[in-house]
Amino acid sequence: MRNLEELFTALAKSPFRRSFELRAKDLAYLQQNGLSEVLDHAEDFIGKRLAPAVIANDGKQTPMRGHPVFVAQHATACCCRGCLQKWHKIPQLRELTLAEQAYVVVVIEKWLQQRVQPF
Fold first, then answer.
1. Please, are residues 39 and 108 in contact by the beta-carbon 8 Å criterion?
2. Using alpha carbons only, what angle is made at residue 73 by residues 85 and 69, rounded to the nearest 5 degrees?
3. Is residue 76 exposed (0-12), middle (13-18) or buried (19+ Cβ within 10 Å)?
4. What is the CB neighbour count within 10 angstroms for residue 34?
5. What is the largest CA-CA distance in the chain?
6. Cα–Cα distance between 37 and 52 in angstroms, integer?
7. 22's torsion region: left (phi>0), alpha (psi -120 to 50) or beta?
8. pTM as predicted
9. How confident is the model over 77-107, as pLDDT tens digits?
């Protein structure tokens, strides 16, 4: 796992990662449901789609849009196990620990907070 300041500096240098932004619909969803509820969804998505040791559709398990968390996952390279290994130094082919899952949610939270007004 990486230092968040170092991580966000590296992500800012990637044209692909910088291309992700929340759409009006995502922002409305955040405002309607609140950041706390959206982060609850993030915990659920990470636990089900990213935490298992083996993911049959790894690299394709996270949609590109449809929920603010999905956008944040791509923007922060928390979208698949390959990206987690490359960007976050979290090894593949083993289940994510609870601490690693919490780290991913914190990364997503930081990215979301940088893009929205306080609710």
1. yes
2. 150
3. buried
4. 12
5. 38
6. 23
7. beta
8. 0.93
9. 999 999 999 999 999 999 999 999 999 999 9
